[in-house]
């Protein structure tokens, strides 16, 4: 039985599993341990990962889909759940081929500030591709598990999780395998993508170009160039890349001074959230033993230095910040499935849950940062004589009025006996499970009449869509099981041949002959349908790619032009 941890990220995803008692990430995408969360819907099929980035085009590409989880927005006719399912399918199939075993279940991480609807949407995405979700856990909590068990630390620690699309900050107490979240906070619309946008706007302004005047393709390419500038700055004082706009080449620049000024705006927002979390936890910054830095943004020296300087305490970053969350998920998955470690995880409700009362105010039933799982009850009654039903409106948020909070569900308890106003006693029960998912029930005590509701996303896939998708998967499961690994390997091998042939002119001279030979070997294996040799030659190409692939792609991106007639990047 193969159990994994999955960090389903906004910009990149990671799958990890336990091997010889330690977490290890799985090299999935061209031999890399992180897979870009990008999907292309092309005529010839679905492409996920680095190749999808290389072939990004607004006519068929989707990225940062995590920001739309739990909404009714559609992309190329697909809901965010379905697109996330396509990413999970690629991760699952690739991991199964790599490990030569089927994945049975997983712990999947979500931002600490994810709403109930977003959490359910994430579970649905996993269900579509046949992944049993052992538990959803918050990303900063998973990072703390990775350090708490893998690095054997104890005390009170803060987790500063600055990713590509979201920011989370949590304070936890770690003692003898107990992980107690004291408080958490975050912003689902604060991440590295926002810095990329600011870098793009800054450079456009230097050439008197307005972002609003760019079409979708020009914006997409501009963000890719901005992202490349950010990632290549490192310890350099300045980096440059070419950007093509209206068939003219413009030099985009990014200096350490400009980057610091841009980043400071977002850093201030993260630190303001951190201050609120400390207040919620009832402790001061000096009460913690360290800060765990995770998320791709913390790889930037200026981000790490700013965190260290602000809190004036050691920053733990000796686990790859892009892998720490998946490591923690794998450790927790292993503990649930095999009970190998004595570990207790006490997470919290990220946002207050309540009921709208007469006049539109909110009766807060479960307050934010309450430990889960949790059951809370409230008693309500009628406000007029012979009232036969009570309508309930469940909301989520910190505002005192329901209209300013997120609406989660509406339901009605009917057939209440005729009584004077105030006589019926209706008990409402809120239950939040270990995944942070809420269910609500209401019962009238004199009759035992009960009405309950699982808080479903108000959008995305309908129940009929889910049933159809799941029935189709179940019907074809046995038929597909035998062929899926070979088909996937064949398709990936064909794509790899096309991919590497397109790069031959850019490959460093010392690797050209090796790559040419491996391409021919892979073609021969395909012709012979020799799946063992396919896997071997594919692996050889993946292993050598780390020497130069990122540099080639970065250079290619800097010289791409948008062909307006074909709407393709060429």
CATH topology of the largest domain: Nucleotidyltransferase, domain 5
CA radius of gyration is 25 Å
**CATH hierarchy class name of the largest domain:** Alpha Beta
- Helices, by number, come to 14
Given as residue ranges, the uncertain stretches (5+ residues, pLDDT < 50) are 560-570
Distance between the termini: 44 Å
As a percent range, the share of helical residues equals 25-40%
Mean pLDDT: 85
| Largest sheet data | 7 strands, mixed
Q: Per DSSP, what share of the residues sits in E-state strands of 2 or more residues?
A: 25-35%
Strand order of the largest sheet: 16-15-10-11-12-17-20
Main features:
570 residues; six-stranded mixed sheet; 14 helices; 28% strand
Describe it.
With 570 residues, this protein is α+β, with helices and mostly antiparallel strands. It has a seven-stranded mixed beta sheet. Strands 1, 2, 3, 4, 8 and 9 form a six-stranded mixed beta sheet that branches. A four-stranded antiparallel beta sheet has the order 19-18-22-23, with no helix packed on it. Mean pLDDT is 85; it is low at 560-570. It has 14 helices and 28 strands. A hairpin with a 4-residue loop joins β25 and β26 (449-454). The chain folds into three domains: 2-191 and 262-348, ATPase, nucleotide binding domain (Nucleotidyltransferase, domain 5, 2-Layer Sandwich), CATH 3.30.420.40; 353-460, Substrate Binding Domain Of DNAk, Chain A, domain 1; 476-569. α5 (192-206) runs antiparallel to α7, α7 (256-281) crosses α8 and α11 runs antiparallel to α12.
